[in-house]
Amino acid sequence: MKFEEAMKQLEETVKQLESGETTLEESMELFEKGVSLSRTCQKLLSEAQLKVTKLISETGEEVEFDTENM
Question: What angle do the packed helices 24-59 and 3-19 form, to 10 degrees?
């Protein structure tokens, strides 16, 4: 799963939870899904950060990148 896909699903899950229109069981399922998606996003961000750090250390140069679009 790509980061953008996981983030979109996480945002949709949060909206459903915030709507207050779900049963307790549905809310628990959505919460579990949200936690899983959050972990996926964190893992993908960590992997990207590691890759950027590795690239910088290999070249010894500063690299600017846009974190707003990650």
Answer: 150
Q: Which residue has the tokens 């549905």?
A: 26
Does residue 64 form part of some domain? no
Average the pLDDT over 47-53 and give the result.
Answer: 89
Write down the pTM of the prediction. Answer: 0.74
Distance CA 56, CA 46 (A): 15
CA distances from 33 to 15, 30, 39 (A): 13, 5, 10
Is residue 51 in a domain? yes
- Whole-angstrom Cα distance, residue 3 to residue 38? 10
